[in-house]
Design a protein that fits this description.
Strand order of the largest sheet: 1-2
Order of helices and strands: EHHEHEEH
Number of helices: 4
Strand content: 5-15%
Length: 110
């Protein structure tokens, strides 16, 4: 089993819809315009928040986000067969770790 973070478009960029909490916490990020810029922002995110699992990046045209409706953020479980096994509600309130655990237990055993 493998877990990854898929870094999608920036939810609250300084040149878009900013929220006060981001300003207060000095999370001030311009909306990336290229894949290379998005990669740099994702690297900074992983470092700042001490992310220990692999981080992969959605393309600048948001192909993954559009396919899964992953904005603002969600938890997904994809089976070894490539099929969606669990889709959580929008986070962070929609992050139901117990639901994900239960969905993992339902996966076929090897």
């Amino acid at each position: 089993m493998r877990f990854v973070v898929v870094y999608i478009r920036e939810a609250h960029p300084t040149d878009g819809w900013q929220v006060k909490q981001n300003e207060d916490e000095k999370i001030l990020i311009k909306d990336p315009k290229t894949d290379a810029e998005r990669i740099e922002v994702a690297k900074d995110f992983a470092k700042q928040f001490k992310v220990t699992i692999p981080v992969v990046i959605d393309t600048i045209d948001d192909k993954t986000e559009k396919a899964y409706a992953g904005w603002p953020d969600r938890m997904f479980l994809i089976g070894a067969d490539g099929k969606l096994k669990y889709k959580g509600a929008p986070g962070p309130r929609g992050f139901k770790v117990d639901e994900v655990r239960a969905a993992i237990k339902e996966l076929p055993k090897k």
